Amino acid sequence: MAEQLPPPTRMVLQAYKGRKVGAEKGFKLLKSKADALKVKFRDICKRIHENKMGMSDESTSACFSLTQAEYAAGNFKNKLLENQMQAEVRVHTRTDNVAGVKLPIFNHYDTGIDGAQTYSLGLGGGGRKIAACRTKYGEYLKSLIKLASLQTSFVAMDEALKITNRRVNALENVTIPRIKKTIDYINRELDELEREDFSRLKMVKKKKEMKAAMEAKLKADAGFATVVKTKDDNDIFVDFEVQRKPDAPISVPKPSAFNFARSPGTAPPPAPVEDPAKSLLDFDD
Predict the structure, then answer these.
(1) Model confidence over 152-165: pLDDT tens digits?
(2) Which residue has the higher pLDDT, 65 or 173?
(3) Were both Cys, which of 50, 106, 202, 261 would link to 149 (CB 3.0–4.6 Å)?
(4) pTM
């Protein structure tokens, strides 16, 4: 389906220019956010790698200490399960904000409950091994909580980074080029309209000049005329009066048998004088 372009007007052009400025500013902000998230993402990956490398040794040491405790004190798992134990370590959750992305952070804290019930284990032997095993697993638990916090932050950061990169690519490759294309289209159409208006004004001006030249020629050659407008905007000439130029020669009409016109400035011919005697003779006849 073809993209529907907006009407090419000045108002639409200003609106799209504002959209372009906003899109470019948003692109810069999202680009900075993506860079900050990438730096934090690499830092989390590095810390996860270091923590896992350290946990391999801690897990080996804790499992070996458990084996030593079982060898020295026997199988004491059933005795631990029979006791009513309460958690000595709990996990506290807080949120860290990195470039607008909320990352969950897990911290361990001691509840203050003393594990006195576990101190009675190994009284017959192997008490020191059980205490060493308890210490080793406490350190291993701290590393597990830290790793869980890093892994959760890693997942949240990866998702936020994908969304941010997707938005950055959409602005850079789709939104901003589309806005620029629309602005170019509107500019071309406005330029075409300006050229049409300019051509139209030139034609109107040319017609007015031709009309003025014709009127001036008529006034110079024959005289002047009073021009009025009719209802249908058609020019008509009324009260036309011929004027003669001061240096123009006086036109004398040619003599003709049927020319009864009299030249201006000439006296009328004298009336014929009748003979009284002839008139009497004619009367006698």
Answers:
(1) 999 999 999 999 99
(2) 173
(3) 106
(4) 0.57
The CA-atom distances, in angstroms, between 6 and each of 13, 16, 148, 177, 188 are: 9, 10, 52, 16, 13
CA–CA separation, 192 and 8 (whole Å): 11
**Tokens linked to 192:** 């075409």
Residues whose CB falls within 8 Å of the CB of residue 77, separated by 6 or more in sequence, listed in order: none
Q: Residue 23 falls within a domain, yes or no?
A: yes
What the block records as the tokens of 202 is 């030139």
Do the domain assignments include residue 207? no
Residue 96 sits at φ, ψ, to 5 deg, of -110, 135
pLDDT at residue 166 is higher than 90 = yes
Residue 258 clears pLDDT 50, i.e. is over it: no
219 to 174, 229, 244: CA distances (angstroms): 67, 19, 11
Q: Count up the domains in the chain and report the number.
A: 1
Cβ neighbours around 121 below 10 Å, total = 19
Cβ(175)–Cβ(30) under 8 Å?
Answer: no
Cα→Cα distances 225→100, 109, 207, 229, 235, Å = 83, 110, 20, 13, 11
Q: Among 35, 32, 21, 4, which Cα is nearest to 176's?
A: 21
Q: What is the CATH number of the domain that holds 156?
A: 1.10.287.3240
Separation CA 272–CA 281 (nearest Å): 18
Identify the pLDDT of residue 69: 80
86/225: higher pLDDT: 86
Query: Is pLDDT larger for residue 83 or for residue 7?
Result: 7
Burial group, residue 241, by CB count within 10 angstroms (0-12, 13-18, 19+): exposed
In a domain, 282, yes or no: no
Q: Cβ distance 221 to 244 under 8 Å? A: no
The secondary structure element, H or E, covering residue 171 is none
Tell how strand 223-229 and strand 235-242 pair up. antiparallel
Mean pLDDT of the 80-92 span:
74
